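To: structure desk
From: M.T.
Subject: fold request, one chain
Message: Could you run this one when you get a chance? Sequence is below, nothing fancy, just the single chain.
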Amino acid sequence: MDLNFTAEEDAFRAEVRQFLKDNLSDEIVAKMRGMEELTKEDLENWHATLQSRNWLAAGWPVQHGGPGWNATQRHIFDEECSAANAPRIVPFGLGMLGPVLLKFGTEEQKAEILPRILDGSDWWCQGYSEPGAGSDLASLKTKAERDGDDYIINGQKTWTTLGQFANKIFCLVRTSSEGKPQEGISFVLVDLDTPGIEMRPIRLLEGGYEVNEVFFTDVRVPVANRVGEENEGWTIAKYLLTHERTNIAGVGASTQALAELKMLAAKVSRKGKPLSIDPIFMAKVAETEIDLEAMRITNLRMLSADATGREAGTVSSMLKIKGTVIRQSINDLARRALGPAACPFPSEEVIGNLAVAPPEAARNAADYFNNRKLSIFGGSNEIQRNIITKNLFGA
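Reply: Done. Structure tokens follow.
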């Protein structure tokens, strides 16, 4: 595998960099750097900006509105967006449901839903986790009972990210209690305006509002809204999670975070010398950087191979584990570099002795606490290790 970028790829990187420079506002960059919550309008405007260049659905085929990029171009785009502090592309419609429909959807579903994801008409959220059924999705209890041409859904979903912005939700529901738990699950698309649905916010520790719980009470949904065959939703769920876990690896975000860590180390002093020349600290930085480079190569191999089945599940689980561990390692090193300034709300005395500006310290502290969740969502790292063991050894 040739790890050097070609002249064409370098030219593509320059094109992406110029586009970001021309279209990414200072206001949005400031919000991203300050870890402020973006509004729905912020995210929709950025999606529309990317779509105007046909750069929104990076992984979709050309015939369905994608740019036709290869794996390296997608990797470069992700790296440059992270380096420029661009908002993330909200993944639920574009990176999760889109690939599912392309693989399992009917032609009618593709024709109706995919264009509405691209033009922003529909904002999708994910209805997977439930109380008592997070990483262990097979134990979900939300039921969908057949009534003629409809399903009647009753149950609860939780940790529904950005559900307050969404008008649609894709759900895993139980359509049978026969056989193994995985054999009775179906994948259903639901309009959130349907009577019987209640969205309740879950306030986070720092006061933010990103996740929700969703209640379904006698919600009537057409059977035509099911993707794939009845009781075969587990196959679709695993396919979707392969895409989600690959995205969670966050190579671009970790690359940017590592660059900021190095700049921070150059500003902070220990015993009168910059931390950036401390051999013990920088050895830990180097170890993390080596791990990140190895993950970058693995991620490119995964994207290039477009693997399916056991291989895809194994590699995506590996990427999810390693990606979250690396990001948390970078956060931990930044916390160590900041020392007392890493407190979310440092005292005036600590602020007066900071080697970095208070906003920068606060941002690193917020990033540290926020990213503790990375090893849990998308299927906890413990679950990913079980998946790898089962796929490789049949254990």
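Reply (cont.): The chain has a mean pLDDT of 87. Let me know if you need anything else for the meeting.
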